[in-house]
Amino acid sequence: MCPNGNADLTKSLILNAAIRIISEDGLQALTAGRLIAEAGVSKGGLYHHFRTMTEVEIEVLQLLSSKLLLSLQSYQAPKTKVEFLDRLETEFFDCLITHDETARALFGYVSSTTFNQQIRVLLRQLQDDISLQRLHALQKLCGGYSTASLQNAVQMIATIQAGLMMRFYVSEDSVSVRNYWRTCRSSLEELLEIKEQADKRWEVVQAPPTPVSSICS
């Protein structure tokens, strides 16, 4: 039997190769033959660690989920609601909606949820974990809001996230995706009652102020 160090290296090679395959060509491309060739391991080396390819798929998904959660947790905690939305934007575009291997591989699992209950459960758990992080952040920033209201906001964010990811991976048009986010952010600002001027990054032309006389008339 291989020493533990070699065994751990072999398993790491297998998992990393599986992530590359899924991120490049989707989950359906992950076959034993391609994985063995991509990882540079023997058939015996593969099946020493995993009895079936289903076990590979599940462990890869668990690894990807852990990586994503750790990445999201590494961001500095927001101090205001505006910072919360800024952080969301960073998460979306720097972590979830990029050519990043982890994000693309995770998206490769989405189509399998229709037919695979275990994958569906794991992806739902990942989304629940992310939503819980966001709920806790909002609870610290929105003391006067009910839990139900904040949960609605978190669900809205999850829906926006799904829409952004779908738009990006279908068209890979970052300009239209950012315009879509701009509209969604405005809705979130309204929901969270954030009173701020339009972000200069969007180069929005400000409307002239309404004369005081017209307000009082």
Question: How does this model look, in words?
Answer:
The longest helix is centred in the middle third of the chain and has 25 residues, at 117-141. The protein is elongated, with a radius of gyration of 22 Å. 72% of the residues lie in helices and 0% in strands. The chain is mainly α and 217 residues long. The chain has 10 helices and no strands.
What keyword list fits this structure?
10 helices; elongated; disordered C terminus
Strand fraction: under 5%
Share of helical residues: over 70%
Rg value: 22 Å
Specify the oligomeric state: single chain
Number of helices: 10
Q: Which structural class should the secondary elements be placed in?
A: mainly alpha
Query: Per the principal axes of the C-alpha atoms, what is the gross shape?
Result: elongated
Low-confidence stretches: 196-217
Sequence of secondary-structure elements = HHHHHHHHHH
Q: How would you summarize the topology of this molecule?
A:
Blueprint: H1 4-25, H2 32-39, H3 43-49, H4 53-73, H5 81-96, H6 101-110, H7 117-141, H8 147-171, H9 174-191, H10 212-216
Helix pairs in contact: 1-2, 1-4, 1-6, 4-6, 4-7, 7-8, 8-9
Offer a quick outline of the entry.
This protein is mainly alpha-helical and 217 residues long. The protein has helices spanning 4-25, 32-39, 43-49, 53-73, 81-96, 101-110, 117-141, 147-171, 174-191, 212-216. The longest helix has 25 residues, at 117-141.
